[in-house]
Structure formats: C-alpha cells, structure tokens
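Reopening this one. Same input as before:
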Amino acid sequence: MINFASRTKKVSPSPTLAISAKAKKLKSEGKDVINFSAGEPDFDTPDFIKEKAIEAIKAGFTKYTPTTGIPELKQAISEKFKKDNALEYSPGQIVVSCGAKHSIFNILFALIEKGDGVIIVSPYWVSYPEMVNLCEGEVQLIKTRPENNFKFTPAELKKNINAKTKLLILNSPSNPCGSVYSKEELERIAEICVAKNIWVLSDEIYEKLVYDGLKHYSLASLNQDIYNLTATVNGVSKAYSMTGWRLGYLAGPPELVRRICDIQDHSTSNPASISQKAALAALQADSDFTKNMCAEFQKRRDYIVSRLDKIKKLSYVKPQGAFYIFIDISGCKMGSLEFASRLLDETFVAVVPGKAFGMDNYVRISFATSLAQIEKGMNRIEEWLKKNG
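Same output, byte for byte:
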C-alpha cells in the first residue's frame, strides 16, 4: 500500500471544475448545454493582446525569464498599483506568478505554519480552505448573512480572532456573492487587524468589475500600518479575459516578498514568457475593453435579477461586483448538490452547488455568458422549478 502524504487527504477536488467539466462533456456529446458554472469571462482576449504574444513568439521570446517576472512587466504593475489603487509598490515588491491562484498559494505557503489560524469568510471561494489545509493551517470561518450583503462586521471579526489567528483572507469584490466592501468598512477591518497584528491577504482579482457606480478600494492603501501587514493579489484573467494565459501577481512588504521569491525559485520558476508579454500589453493599454465588458456584465446581472424576481422559490442578494449571483434555494425541497445535479441532467443547465462555497442552501450562477444564453437558461430553470422543488 502506498503511503501518501497526509496533507493530500485534507484536500477535496474542486466542485466548480467538476461541474464545468461535466457540462463540457455533455456539450461535446451534442447536448444543448447552458453553462452558468464558468468562472471566466466569455469575451475573447482582445486582439491587441494576442498580437503582442504572437510578436513575442516570432521574436524568439520563448526562454526562461527572471523568476519573479520580466522587469518591464513588474514596472507596469507598479505603475498600475499607483494609478488604480493609490498603492506604492516598487518593482522589487512584486512577484509575477502563474495566475492569482498561484499568488494566493505562495502567500499562504510563506506565512502559514501548522496550527496557524486563517480567517475565511463564508461563503468563500472554493480554493481558500483547501489551500489552508495544504499549508496545515486551521480554517476559522466567519459565517455571513444575506441581510448584510454577505459581508462580515467588525464585531464578527473581533469575535473570531483568537490566539492562533495569523491571517485574514479578504475578497472584494467577492466570489461567489459579488460583495464589495466600502472604504469605511475596510477602515474598520484595518483597524482591528493592525491592533491584533494579523496579516491580510487581499484578493482583488475582480476589482475592475464593480457595478452601480461603486468604487473599489485596496485595503493596503488606507495607511502605512495596514500596508505593512497586507499582501495584495491581482491578475489579468478577469479584467482582460485572459484566464488561460495563467498570469497573476502579488505585492507586499519586502521581507514577505523575498520569501515568496525563494519559494517560486524552487517550485514553478517564472510564469510563461509569452504570457508576460501579453500581460504587459494589457496593462499598458487604455481601459475601454474592461469598461465595455463591465457594462455588459451589469446588463446581464440586471436581466437575471429581473427574472429571479418572478420565481417565488428562489431569492438572492443583488451582486455589487464580479459576475456571479448567489441564489437561495431554501424554497426548494433539495440541497444544492441534488439541485445542481438534477438541473444539469434534466435541463442541461449547469450551476455550481453552494455547498462548495460553504452554504448548502444556495447555488451560484455565473452571468459570464451571452444574454441570449442567459434568457434560454433562465427559461429552463423557471420551467423546471414549476415541476420540481
């Protein structure tokens, strides 16, 4: 019998990827699948980005680069942080990685030891707890409520901090709820974390997708004390529809970044050279593509909301950002796994069970697909619920 490392027993497969894979399999078999499970924009990567990647290939830019990214990309990221987020990070404080997920894992691996507590906000992105488990940390859940837009309060944060707590993972805008923390809310969070000397991993991958005139604020920009305790994560996957390019980045205090550099030296080394050139083109371009995409996502969100308002068995909290809506299925006579499985098998509509995000009486719908597909999918859901649940 093979004795695998005990850490592998603590990790579960990603339910979102499993649902998406099943939907793709059904589609390959000729079924008319509506995929509401995708965690990626349906827009194509802009041509000007693809052209820069092709130029890089033709120029022979296909070799190793410095582990933490090419200097011109790190400079562009530094300038982006200053312009968009009021953050002063030198290129030496930036690590370019193989996606924002990779950046998050690097931060946890550098900070978390066996028994360290990591506060995660529920509902949460599916990979946060699994990454903490891999690092042998202890997950400390803050369960949020729909009446507070699935955001935790300062009182709830204080209540969940104990002697083991070392890190808070903050995701704004959030997956799966689309919650966006205001500047005032972030100031209270910062005050508590500074007072308790708790690190914060600020996952800001959806920062460009914020609706209704709201503004995204970076936690680390509030003051020097919280800046010294924060690792900021971002990337090009959501803002520029570059999920498959696998290019993310992080920034933080020099001592933390130095340790992450060492980790990446001996794990992945550099992210793909061609993806780095593509990301450079994205960050140096004007913001028209992202603004137009955001406007389209808001239209889709508003349409889904208008349809959900007419379905008595379902309720929701209107998302303020990202491209997901978290739907309460308590009015149905089934849990989220049964709901998602039957919906896909019986109507060929793929949604993600809320159990994957820590709430079994919810499902997540992604509106990262066309309005025509959304209309067809909502028609099927509405008809199916008349017969079931």
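So the earlier flakiness isn't reproducible anymore. For the record, The longest strand covers residues 165-171.
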